[in-house]
Amino acid sequence: MIYLYCRKKEKNATLCPECKELLRYAYARLDHCPFGEMKNSCKQCTIHCYKPAMRERMRQVMRFSGPRMLLYAPLEAIRHLLR
Length: 83
Fold this sequence. Notes:
Low-confidence stretches: none
Shape: globular
Largest sheet: none
Number of strands: 0
């Protein structure tokens, strides 16, 4: 979703430094999540791992990319909705 956001919203051919940092941060948070692979989406989680600024940035990315995922990656979008 971050790739789609950076490409379509920010008009970049590759990830910009801010989006790269957000992606690294998201992977780091997922690696250290106490629920591991068994967790629901972060939005429904009882523990908020993200810093407030990064959480807001990810919310912006999801808000933009979420509806577009049905067009660009329909299987992944459906899988995400079923979680």
